[in-house]
Amino acid sequence: MRLDVITIFPEYLDPLRHALLGRAIERGILDVAVHDLRSWTHDVHKAVDDTPYGGGPGMVMKPTVWGPALDDVAALSGPAATVRRLESAQPHVPSDAVDIGKAHADGDNRPVLVVPTPAGAPFSQDTAERWAAEERLVFACGRYEGIDQRVFDDAATRYRVEEVSLGDYVLIGGEVAVLVMAEAVVRLIPGVLGNRRSHEEDSFQDGLLEGPSYTKPRIWREREVPEVLLSGDHAKVDRWRRDQALVRTAATRPELIEALQREGALDDRDRSVLDAPGE
Ligand code: SAM
């Protein structure tokens, strides 16, 4: 997968070089290019923003800068052709070039343009799974009051545009949102996590939050690990984990339980655990 990020703070994306993502770069599974939006400015001040039409506080990012930037990043032309790709923080082996013309499963080879914005559709594990199957994701990091809306209407000819929100709060810029989304997506790419089961059993994969986890020592500060986890009986352990997941989800995210009920995804045993938690 190739990730392109367009931002006025390229150094903000440096964490993508580390840990699991750095290892994915190192192994040629992931390729990351961070583009400085100011490469597409034409004035001496390298201005990327201007006052809003209609008045009001704050500044809006200019279409005359974002438009050419998105054109070049889609085609890997202009400043985007020579952008330095992120090197893994691990000892480096250069990765192969990515085929940007490879078609998506439905024959549409336009890359996805991800636009982080509080006004977007909520980003979720389902979104992450969908994007993990993409060949290429391009992220447009807004700052100030955001980006002139015409940029995205226009970009729809070259990209499949998705406006997404991390949650019901307002960040200062899109960079942190990109770090969050990139982690959630990249860890789902086959081969990135050492053990495939690690994400198959994570929260949200089956519509539930994951229950508690324990490691050695068996007794710590007089607190014992639940007996069932020491039993070696895998069926019993699986059932206990599901029970814990049901109870935790009902306590903190009851709407997730309601969704599973509507989908008919709970069996009699699940319902009895929810009716009498702790029994
Ligand atoms: N004026 C915008 C509004 O009220 O919807 C907020 C702009 S915010 C200060 C600047 C940038 O931060 C946005 O363009 C977006 O890239 C990013 N951002 C802020 N909150 C976000 C959220 N909840 N999810 C995703 N991105 C967010």
From TrEMBL:
One GO MF term attached to the UniProt entry: tRNA (guanine(37)-N1)-methyltransferase activity
Enzyme Commission code(s) on record: 2.1.1.228
Transmembrane spans: none
Limits of the tRNA methyltransferase TRMD/TRM10-type domain: 1-75, 106-258
InterPro entries given in the database record: Alpha/beta_knot_MTases (IPR029028), tRNA_m1G_MeTrfase_C_sf (IPR023148), tRNA_m1G_MeTrfase_TrmD (IPR002649), tRNA_m1G_MTases_N (IPR029026), tRNA_MeTrfase_TRMD/TRM10 (IPR016009)
Main location: cytoplasm
Family: Belongs to the RNA methyltransferase TrmD family.
Entries under HAMAP family matching the protein: TrmD
SUBUNIT field: Homodimer.
Protein name: tRNA (guanine-N(1)-)-methyltransferase
